[in-house]
Amino acid sequence: MANSPDSPTSTLSIPAVPAEAWAAAILTIDLGAVVANWCLLRDCVAPADCAAVVKADAYGLGAARVAPALAAAGCRRFFVAMPDEAVALRAVLPEVEIACFGGLPAGAEAVFREHRIVPVLNHLGEIARWSAYARRTGGPLPAIVHLDTGMNRLGLGPDERADLAEQPERLVGIDVRCWISHLACADQPTHWLTAAQLGRFRLALAALPPAPASLANSAGIFRGRALRFDRVRPGAALYGVNPTPESANPMQGTIVLEGRILQVRAVDRPMTVGYGAAHFVARKGRIATISVGYADGYGRALSGRGHVFVAGRPAAVVGRVSMDLITADVTNIPDHLIQPGGLVELIGPHRPVDQIADEAGTIGYEILTSLGRRYHRRWLEPGTGAE
Length: 387
Ligand SMILES: *Cc1c(COP(=O)(O)O)cnc(C)c1O
Description:
Layout: E1 25-30, H1 31-45, E2 49-50, E3 52-53, H2 55-59, H3 63-72, E4 77-80, H4 83-92, E5 97-100, H5 109-114, E6 117-121, H6 124-136, E7 141-146, H7 158-166, E8 174-180, H8 192-207, E9 213-214, H9 218-221, E10 231-232, E11 255-267, E12 272-273, E13 279-280, E14 285-290, E15 307-310, E16 313-318, E17 326-329, E18 343-347, H10 353-360, H11 364-369, E19 376-380
Parallel strand pairs: 1-19, 2-10, 3-4, 4-5, 5-6, 6-7, 7-8, 8-9
Antiparallel strand pairs: 1-11, 11-14, 11-18, 12-13, 14-17, 15-16, 16-17
The chain binds pyridoxal-5'-phosphate (PLP).
């Protein structure tokens, strides 16, 4: 047989069995769910405009697929964090507004202008540089200006805002598309700092030249109409992270991560499992070895804490998470469900992102942005539910 697995030519031909059938782990990304989440937020905040934050490769899901799907659904404004992300996104989306949170690096002005990237200007030095560059190149250039209202991370602080309010000519050549600020505590339903930031933002806006304003991230959208202003900037909620951690998640899950069972082995006391002999086998049972590890973003913190799901039934991750493998106690799962080659759910309907984040001692954001590069990625297109 020309295409038998042992044939030297077999690697050159298209495999008869699709990669999904043997891939070590499969990440299914439901673009329809991402779009549905954006539409829910859009309808919720209307008439305010709903942008989309697609930094960090759309929180690990893949900006090159996510952003066009959102643009097709009507999203017109996108935010990334780094210049390289902005340039890459511009290559995919020629028409939309692309803004870059990380500011305007010295020397990058021409790249921003060439690719029509809107810098988020975070201090007076960047404003001076963009203004000078605009005057030199003979035309107004767009920018978003970030006002810091309490995060103390990026943005113009009170003194810089006062200077700008007194000397609006510092903005000559700059087309201010939006004043933004960022909330530090919107994930908590009521927090004194949210109210304080809102007050400071309003005061700052009143003193500055008029332009649209934007304050709310995902959680901010759910903390009252007053926070929505003209535009909102959700990221995490688009990808299914709960923007209201104190109550049920209004968003849809967007990913399913499945790992493959490589072996199932019988164990009994006094054996141990894995590195460091960290797991002591207490009784006769079975261990399934699954081909996902910390190199894939299945964090080492999940050692002895995580769960995998086999046909909806939980199995505890026992022993240490290693680079490419985890081990789960499948003693209580019927044999026929745990055959080598079978798939188990690591993230999905039985283990939403926020829950695995809890187990790992982190937040859903970090689980998503750590999603590995070795996964076989399947895309479910909006509307069709198919690839
Ligand atoms: C990341 C980011 C967002 C989006 O935040 P989410 O909590 O993911 O919705 C909005 N604004 C700024 C400035 C950000 O850095």
